Amino acid sequence: MYGEHYGSLVRMAALLVGDAAVAEAVVQDSFVAMHGAWRRLRDPETALPFLYQCLVNRSRSVLRQHNVIGRNTAERAPRMPCAERGVPRLLEFTVVRALHALPPRQREALVLTYYGNLTQAQAASAMGISASAVKSHVGRAIEALRPQLRPGR
Amino acid sequence: MKTASGDRDWPGVMPPAPNDGFEESLRRALRQAADCVEANEDGLARIFRRLAGPWLVRQVSLLVTDCVDLFELTTIWLQPMSARTRAVPAAARRSVHEAFQWCTSPAWLRTAVAWLRPALAAAITAVVVMTGTVALSQTVARMELSSNRPAGLFVSAGTATGNHRQPAAGGGPGPAGKTSPPRAGGPTHQHSCAAASCSSGPFMQPTATPHGNAPPAPNPKQSHRHHQPQGHHHLTHPQQRHHRSGEARHHDRDPAGDAGY
Questions:
Q1: A118, A135, A137, A146: which to substitute to probe chain B, counting the most B Cβ within 10 Å?
Q2: So where are chain B's domains?
Q3: For chain B, which residues score pLDDT lower than 50?
Q4: Which alpha helices (H) appear in A18-130, and where do they start and end?
Q5: pTM above 0.80, yes or no
Q6: What's the fold here for domain A93-153?
Q7: Least packed by Cβ within 10 Å: which of A65, B5, B112, B169?
Protein backbone atom coordinates (compact mmCIF):
# COMPACT_ATOMS: atom_id res chain seq x y z
CA MET A 1 0.00 0.00 0.00
CA TYR A 2 2.83 2.37 0.79
CA GLY A 3 4.53 1.88 -2.55
CA GLU A 4 1.27 2.22 -4.42
CA HIS A 5 -0.31 5.22 -2.77
CA TYR A 6 2.34 7.11 -0.83
CA GLY A 7 3.43 9.38 -3.68
CA SER A 8 -0.10 10.22 -4.81
CA LEU A 9 -1.19 10.84 -1.24
CA VAL A 10 1.73 13.20 -0.68
CA ARG A 11 0.85 15.15 -3.83
CA MET A 12 -2.78 15.30 -2.85
CA ALA A 13 -1.85 16.51 0.60
CA ALA A 14 0.48 19.05 -0.97
CA LEU A 15 -2.42 20.44 -2.97
CA LEU A 16 -4.49 20.63 0.19
CA VAL A 17 -1.94 22.24 2.50
CA GLY A 18 0.26 23.97 -0.06
CA ASP A 19 3.54 22.66 1.32
CA ALA A 20 5.36 19.49 0.34
CA ALA A 21 7.13 18.93 3.67
CA VAL A 22 3.96 19.40 5.64
CA ALA A 23 2.19 17.12 3.18
CA GLU A 24 4.74 14.39 3.80
CA ALA A 25 4.30 14.73 7.54
CA VAL A 26 0.57 14.55 7.12
CA VAL A 27 0.76 11.40 5.02
CA GLN A 28 3.18 9.73 7.42
CA ASP A 29 0.88 10.56 10.31
CA SER A 30 -1.95 9.00 8.34
CA PHE A 31 0.00 5.81 7.82
CA VAL A 32 0.92 5.64 11.48
CA ALA A 33 -2.72 6.14 12.39
CA MET A 34 -3.76 3.44 9.96
CA HIS A 35 -1.22 1.09 11.52
CA GLY A 36 -2.61 1.79 14.93
CA ALA A 37 -6.16 1.23 13.76
CA TRP A 38 -5.44 -1.77 11.63
CA ARG A 39 -7.20 -4.16 13.97
CA ARG A 40 -10.31 -2.04 13.97
CA LEU A 41 -10.55 -1.86 10.21
CA ARG A 42 -11.48 -5.55 9.84
CA ASP A 43 -11.73 -5.16 6.07
CA PRO A 44 -8.44 -4.41 4.23
CA GLU A 45 -10.37 -2.66 1.52
CA THR A 46 -11.31 0.07 3.90
CA ALA A 47 -7.67 0.95 4.50
CA LEU A 48 -7.51 3.36 1.61
CA PRO A 49 -10.70 5.23 2.54
CA PHE A 50 -9.36 5.38 6.06
CA LEU A 51 -6.13 6.88 4.72
CA TYR A 52 -8.11 9.51 2.81
CA GLN A 53 -10.08 10.34 5.89
CA CYS A 54 -6.93 10.69 7.94
CA LEU A 55 -5.37 12.77 5.21
CA VAL A 56 -8.30 15.19 5.05
CA ASN A 57 -8.62 15.47 8.81
CA ARG A 58 -4.94 16.10 9.41
CA SER A 59 -4.79 18.56 6.56
CA ARG A 60 -7.63 20.47 8.20
CA SER A 61 -5.81 20.43 11.51
CA VAL A 62 -2.62 21.71 9.94
CA LEU A 63 -4.41 24.46 8.04
CA ARG A 64 -6.33 25.47 11.15
CA GLN A 65 -3.12 25.69 13.14
CA HIS A 66 -1.42 27.70 10.42
CA ASN A 67 -4.40 30.04 10.23
CA VAL A 68 -4.24 30.66 13.98
CA ILE A 69 -0.53 31.31 13.83
CA GLY A 70 -0.95 33.58 10.82
CA ARG A 71 -3.72 35.59 12.50
CA ASN A 72 -1.89 36.20 15.75
CA THR A 73 1.69 36.69 14.67
CA ALA A 74 3.47 38.99 12.34
CA GLU A 75 4.20 38.06 8.77
CA ARG A 76 6.65 35.24 8.69
CA ALA A 77 8.99 34.24 5.92
CA PRO A 78 7.31 31.51 3.91
CA ARG A 79 8.80 28.10 4.17
CA MET A 80 10.26 26.94 0.91
CA PRO A 81 11.08 23.28 1.17
CA CYS A 82 10.48 22.75 -2.52
CA ALA A 83 12.75 25.60 -3.46
CA GLU A 84 15.48 24.20 -1.22
CA ARG A 85 15.24 20.97 -3.14
CA GLY A 86 15.28 22.72 -6.45
CA VAL A 87 11.59 22.12 -6.99
CA PRO A 88 9.38 25.02 -8.02
CA ARG A 89 7.06 26.11 -5.26
CA LEU A 90 3.50 24.99 -5.37
CA LEU A 91 2.10 28.44 -4.89
CA GLU A 92 3.85 29.60 -8.02
CA PHE A 93 1.20 27.77 -9.98
CA THR A 94 -1.86 29.77 -10.77
CA VAL A 95 -4.16 26.88 -10.14
CA VAL A 96 -2.73 26.31 -6.67
CA ARG A 97 -3.09 29.96 -5.77
CA ALA A 98 -6.66 29.91 -7.01
CA LEU A 99 -7.23 26.69 -5.14
CA HIS A 100 -6.07 28.19 -1.85
CA ALA A 101 -8.33 31.16 -2.38
CA LEU A 102 -11.31 28.83 -2.15
CA PRO A 103 -13.05 27.85 1.07
CA PRO A 104 -11.56 24.72 2.65
CA ARG A 105 -14.49 22.44 1.88
CA GLN A 106 -14.61 23.45 -1.77
CA ARG A 107 -10.86 22.95 -2.05
CA GLU A 108 -11.06 19.48 -0.51
CA ALA A 109 -13.94 18.44 -2.73
CA LEU A 110 -12.20 19.69 -5.83
CA VAL A 111 -8.86 18.02 -5.06
CA LEU A 112 -10.42 14.72 -4.09
CA THR A 113 -12.63 14.52 -7.17
CA TYR A 114 -10.44 16.13 -9.81
CA TYR A 115 -6.96 15.15 -8.71
CA GLY A 116 -7.69 12.02 -6.69
CA ASN A 117 -10.30 10.87 -9.22
CA LEU A 118 -12.67 9.87 -6.44
CA THR A 119 -16.36 9.64 -6.98
CA GLN A 120 -18.63 12.00 -5.13
CA ALA A 121 -19.58 9.23 -2.73
CA GLN A 122 -15.95 8.42 -2.00
CA ALA A 123 -15.12 12.10 -1.54
CA ALA A 124 -18.16 12.46 0.68
CA SER A 125 -16.99 9.57 2.82
CA ALA A 126 -13.50 11.03 3.08
CA MET A 127 -14.78 14.50 3.94
CA GLY A 128 -17.51 13.31 6.29
CA ILE A 129 -20.29 15.03 4.39
CA SER A 130 -23.01 13.92 2.01
CA ALA A 131 -22.53 13.28 -1.68
CA SER A 132 -24.87 16.09 -2.62
CA ALA A 133 -22.83 18.46 -0.48
CA VAL A 134 -19.73 17.34 -2.33
CA LYS A 135 -21.45 17.99 -5.63
CA SER A 136 -22.49 21.43 -4.46
CA HIS A 137 -18.98 22.25 -3.24
CA VAL A 138 -17.46 21.10 -6.51
CA GLY A 139 -19.89 23.14 -8.57
CA ARG A 140 -19.23 26.27 -6.56
CA ALA A 141 -15.51 25.72 -6.73
CA ILE A 142 -15.58 25.38 -10.49
CA GLU A 143 -17.70 28.47 -10.84
CA ALA A 144 -15.22 30.33 -8.69
CA LEU A 145 -12.20 29.05 -10.56
CA ARG A 146 -13.61 29.46 -14.05
CA PRO A 147 -12.91 33.19 -14.42
CA GLN A 148 -9.44 32.78 -12.92
CA LEU A 149 -8.32 29.86 -15.03
CA ARG A 150 -9.71 31.04 -18.34
CA PRO A 151 -7.46 30.03 -21.23
CA GLY A 152 -7.04 33.63 -22.27
CA ARG A 153 -5.49 34.60 -18.95
CA MET B 1 -16.41 11.19 11.10
CA LYS B 2 -18.11 8.67 9.04
CA THR B 3 -16.25 5.61 8.04
CA ALA B 4 -16.10 4.45 4.52
CA SER B 5 -16.99 0.88 5.38
CA GLY B 6 -20.23 1.16 3.46
CA ASP B 7 -18.60 2.30 0.27
CA ARG B 8 -17.69 -0.66 -1.84
CA ASP B 9 -16.56 1.28 -4.84
CA TRP B 10 -13.23 2.39 -3.36
CA PRO B 11 -10.89 -0.02 -5.10
CA GLY B 12 -12.21 0.81 -8.52
CA VAL B 13 -11.83 4.55 -8.64
CA MET B 14 -13.88 6.01 -11.45
CA PRO B 15 -13.06 9.47 -12.68
CA PRO B 16 -16.02 11.77 -13.05
CA ALA B 17 -17.15 12.41 -16.55
CA PRO B 18 -15.89 15.72 -17.84
CA ASN B 19 -18.56 18.16 -18.75
CA ASP B 20 -16.58 20.57 -20.81
CA GLY B 21 -13.04 21.49 -21.61
CA PHE B 22 -12.60 23.59 -18.53
CA GLU B 23 -12.80 20.64 -16.18
CA GLU B 24 -10.21 18.76 -18.22
CA SER B 25 -7.91 21.71 -18.23
CA LEU B 26 -8.43 22.05 -14.47
CA ARG B 27 -7.52 18.41 -13.98
CA ARG B 28 -4.41 18.80 -16.09
CA ALA B 29 -3.40 21.91 -14.24
CA LEU B 30 -3.78 20.18 -10.88
CA ARG B 31 -1.66 17.24 -12.01
CA GLN B 32 0.94 19.50 -13.47
CA ALA B 33 1.17 21.42 -10.19
CA ALA B 34 1.22 18.27 -8.06
CA ASP B 35 3.84 16.54 -10.17
CA CYS B 36 6.44 18.99 -8.99
CA VAL B 37 6.14 17.52 -5.50
CA GLU B 38 8.56 14.66 -4.98
CA ALA B 39 8.10 12.51 -1.92
CA ASN B 40 11.21 11.73 0.06
CA GLU B 41 12.50 8.22 -0.22
CA ASP B 42 12.96 7.90 3.50
CA GLY B 43 9.25 8.22 4.14
CA LEU B 44 8.84 4.55 4.92
CA ALA B 45 11.89 4.61 7.18
CA ARG B 46 10.38 7.50 9.11
CA ILE B 47 7.13 5.67 9.46
CA PHE B 48 8.91 2.56 10.72
CA ARG B 49 11.02 4.65 13.07
CA ARG B 50 7.89 6.07 14.56
CA LEU B 51 6.29 2.66 14.77
CA ALA B 52 9.36 0.87 16.09
CA GLY B 53 9.38 2.49 19.47
CA PRO B 54 7.47 1.09 22.39
CA TRP B 55 3.82 1.88 22.51
CA LEU B 56 4.13 3.89 25.70
CA VAL B 57 7.03 5.93 24.36
CA ARG B 58 5.09 6.61 21.18
CA GLN B 59 2.06 7.74 23.11
CA VAL B 60 4.18 9.89 25.36
CA SER B 61 5.92 11.45 22.39
CA LEU B 62 2.56 12.12 20.76
CA LEU B 63 1.29 13.62 24.00
CA VAL B 64 4.37 15.80 24.31
CA THR B 65 3.99 16.92 20.72
CA ASP B 66 0.35 17.79 21.29
CA CYS B 67 1.20 19.64 24.49
CA VAL B 68 3.90 21.61 22.72
CA ASP B 69 1.47 22.50 19.97
CA LEU B 70 -1.15 23.48 22.52
CA PHE B 71 1.36 25.59 24.43
CA GLU B 72 2.44 27.26 21.23
CA LEU B 73 -1.13 28.02 20.25
CA THR B 74 -1.93 29.30 23.74
CA THR B 75 1.12 31.52 23.66
CA ILE B 76 0.11 32.86 20.29
CA TRP B 77 -3.44 33.48 21.47
CA LEU B 78 -2.27 35.25 24.60
CA GLN B 79 0.40 37.26 22.85
CA PRO B 80 -1.81 40.31 22.10
CA MET B 81 -3.13 40.29 25.66
CA SER B 82 0.35 40.10 27.16
CA ALA B 83 1.55 42.85 24.86
CA ARG B 84 -1.36 45.00 26.02
CA THR B 85 -0.60 44.18 29.65
CA ARG B 86 3.01 45.20 29.18
CA ALA B 87 2.01 48.34 27.36
CA VAL B 88 -0.21 49.68 30.18
CA PRO B 89 2.50 50.01 32.90
CA ALA B 90 4.90 51.39 30.34
CA ALA B 91 2.38 54.06 29.38
CA ALA B 92 1.73 54.83 33.05
CA ARG B 93 5.42 55.19 33.77
CA ARG B 94 5.85 57.37 30.73
CA SER B 95 2.97 59.63 31.71
CA VAL B 96 4.27 60.01 35.28
CA HIS B 97 7.73 60.80 34.00
CA GLU B 98 6.36 63.37 31.59
CA ALA B 99 4.28 64.93 34.34
CA PHE B 100 7.32 65.17 36.60
CA GLN B 101 9.39 66.74 33.84
CA TRP B 102 6.61 69.19 33.13
CA CYS B 103 6.37 70.18 36.78
CA THR B 104 10.10 70.73 37.08
CA SER B 105 10.45 72.71 33.90
CA PRO B 106 10.09 76.53 33.86
CA ALA B 107 7.39 76.19 31.29
CA TRP B 108 5.17 75.02 34.12
CA LEU B 109 5.29 78.49 35.68
CA ARG B 110 4.31 80.20 32.46
CA THR B 111 1.54 77.76 31.89
CA ALA B 112 0.37 78.09 35.48
CA VAL B 113 0.41 81.88 35.34
CA ALA B 114 -1.56 81.78 32.14
CA TRP B 115 -4.54 80.23 33.87
CA LEU B 116 -3.75 81.58 37.34
CA ARG B 117 -4.50 85.17 36.34
CA PRO B 118 -8.12 84.68 35.28
CA ALA B 119 -8.61 82.30 38.16
CA LEU B 120 -7.37 84.93 40.60
CA ALA B 121 -9.61 87.55 39.01
CA ALA B 122 -12.60 85.29 39.32
CA ALA B 123 -11.74 84.46 42.93
CA ILE B 124 -11.31 88.11 43.87
CA THR B 125 -14.58 88.99 42.21
CA ALA B 126 -16.31 86.24 44.12
CA VAL B 127 -14.83 87.41 47.39
CA VAL B 128 -15.88 91.02 46.76
CA VAL B 129 -19.39 90.00 45.82
CA MET B 130 -19.71 87.77 48.86
CA THR B 131 -18.35 90.45 51.16
CA GLY B 132 -20.74 93.00 49.72
CA THR B 133 -23.63 90.63 50.06
CA VAL B 134 -22.79 89.85 53.67
CA ALA B 135 -22.30 93.53 54.53
CA LEU B 136 -25.53 94.50 52.85
CA SER B 137 -27.44 91.77 54.61
CA GLN B 138 -25.97 92.84 57.92
CA THR B 139 -26.87 96.43 57.24
CA VAL B 140 -30.40 95.51 56.35
CA ALA B 141 -30.67 93.38 59.47
CA ARG B 142 -29.41 96.21 61.58
CA MET B 143 -31.88 98.56 59.98
CA GLU B 144 -34.71 96.21 60.73
CA LEU B 145 -33.42 95.82 64.25
CA SER B 146 -33.27 99.52 64.77
CA SER B 147 -36.71 99.95 63.31
CA ASN B 148 -38.08 97.63 65.94
CA ARG B 149 -36.50 99.70 68.71
CA PRO B 150 -38.15 102.76 70.15
CA ALA B 151 -37.90 105.29 67.46
CA GLY B 152 -37.96 108.21 69.87
CA LEU B 153 -35.08 106.85 71.83
CA PHE B 154 -33.15 106.53 68.69
CA VAL B 155 -32.73 110.27 68.37
CA SER B 156 -30.77 110.84 71.57
CA ALA B 157 -27.03 110.51 71.76
CA GLY B 158 -26.80 113.96 73.11
CA THR B 159 -24.08 115.44 75.19
CA ALA B 160 -24.09 116.50 78.80
CA THR B 161 -24.82 119.98 77.79
CA GLY B 162 -27.96 118.99 76.18
CA ASN B 163 -26.74 118.94 72.64
CA HIS B 164 -28.30 116.02 70.89
CA ARG B 165 -26.35 114.45 68.11
CA GLN B 166 -27.24 111.93 65.59
CA PRO B 167 -26.16 108.47 66.43
CA ALA B 168 -23.08 107.74 64.51
CA ALA B 169 -22.74 104.07 64.91
CA GLY B 170 -25.18 103.07 67.56
CA GLY B 171 -28.04 102.70 65.23
CA GLY B 172 -28.91 103.14 61.69
CA PRO B 173 -31.41 105.49 60.33
CA GLY B 174 -34.92 104.64 61.20
CA PRO B 175 -37.74 104.33 58.83
CA ALA B 176 -38.85 107.51 57.25
CA GLY B 177 -42.29 107.31 58.74
CA LYS B 178 -41.09 107.06 62.29
CA THR B 179 -37.89 108.96 62.58
CA SER B 180 -36.07 111.24 60.33
CA PRO B 181 -33.03 109.80 58.74
CA PRO B 182 -29.91 110.66 60.64
CA ARG B 183 -27.29 112.70 59.00
CA ALA B 184 -23.73 112.53 60.00
CA GLY B 185 -22.59 115.81 61.36
CA GLY B 186 -26.04 117.15 61.16
CA PRO B 187 -27.09 120.31 62.92
CA THR B 188 -27.47 120.17 66.60
CA HIS B 189 -30.25 121.79 68.49
CA GLN B 190 -30.38 123.16 71.92
CA HIS B 191 -33.18 122.47 74.21
CA SER B 192 -33.64 122.85 77.89
CA CYS B 193 -33.75 119.25 78.96
CA ALA B 194 -31.70 118.36 81.96
CA ALA B 195 -28.34 116.79 81.63
CA ALA B 196 -29.47 113.75 83.50
CA SER B 197 -32.35 113.25 81.20
CA CYS B 198 -30.20 113.12 78.10
CA SER B 199 -28.53 109.87 77.92
CA SER B 200 -25.15 109.60 76.47
CA GLY B 201 -26.09 106.40 74.82
CA PRO B 202 -27.66 106.09 71.51
CA PHE B 203 -31.10 105.91 72.96
CA MET B 204 -32.96 108.50 74.81
CA GLN B 205 -34.14 107.61 78.22
CA PRO B 206 -37.86 107.79 78.67
CA THR B 207 -37.46 109.98 81.73
CA ALA B 208 -36.92 113.10 79.73
CA THR B 209 -40.39 114.45 79.89
CA PRO B 210 -41.21 114.35 83.60
CA HIS B 211 -38.86 117.20 84.27
CA GLY B 212 -40.43 120.22 85.70
CA ASN B 213 -38.37 122.63 83.76
CA ALA B 214 -38.97 120.84 80.63
CA PRO B 215 -40.41 123.01 77.99
CA PRO B 216 -44.01 122.59 77.40
CA ALA B 217 -44.92 120.24 74.70
CA PRO B 218 -45.12 122.23 71.58
CA ASN B 219 -47.95 122.15 69.29
CA PRO B 220 -47.49 119.13 67.06
CA LYS B 221 -48.06 121.18 64.04
CA GLN B 222 -45.68 123.84 65.10
CA SER B 223 -43.11 121.36 66.22
CA HIS B 224 -43.42 119.44 63.09
CA ARG B 225 -43.22 122.53 61.10
CA HIS B 226 -40.36 123.84 63.10
CA HIS B 227 -38.15 120.82 63.39
CA GLN B 228 -38.66 118.79 60.36
CA PRO B 229 -36.75 120.95 57.96
CA GLN B 230 -33.76 120.82 60.21
CA GLY B 231 -33.79 117.13 60.44
CA HIS B 232 -34.28 116.88 64.16
CA HIS B 233 -35.73 113.80 65.69
CA HIS B 234 -38.22 115.08 68.15
CA LEU B 235 -41.24 112.92 68.09
CA THR B 236 -43.90 115.44 67.62
CA HIS B 237 -46.29 113.47 65.52
CA PRO B 238 -49.10 112.03 67.62
CA GLN B 239 -48.57 108.59 66.24
CA GLN B 240 -44.91 108.77 66.97
CA ARG B 241 -45.62 110.05 70.42
CA HIS B 242 -47.91 107.19 71.08
CA HIS B 243 -45.25 104.80 69.95
CA ARG B 244 -42.74 106.49 72.15
CA SER B 245 -44.93 106.23 75.21
CA GLY B 246 -45.36 102.54 74.58
CA GLU B 247 -41.65 102.08 74.31
CA ALA B 248 -41.22 104.03 77.51
CA ARG B 249 -43.50 101.68 79.28
CA HIS B 250 -41.52 98.83 77.90
CA HIS B 251 -38.33 100.32 79.26
CA ASP B 252 -39.93 100.76 82.59
CA ARG B 253 -40.58 97.10 82.71
CA ASP B 254 -37.17 96.18 81.46
CA PRO B 255 -34.51 98.47 82.86
CA ALA B 256 -31.81 96.58 81.10
CA GLY B 257 -33.48 96.84 77.77
CA ASP B 258 -30.58 98.59 76.14
CA ALA B 259 -28.25 95.97 77.35
CA GLY B 260 -30.45 93.53 75.62
CA TYR B 261 -29.71 95.13 72.34
A1: A118
A2: 55-105, 106-148, 151-254
A3: 1-9, 11-15, 17, 151-261
A4: 20-36, 38-41, 47-72, 81-84, 94-100, 104-110, 120-127
A5: no
A6: Arc Repressor Mutant, subunit A (1.10.10)
A7: B169
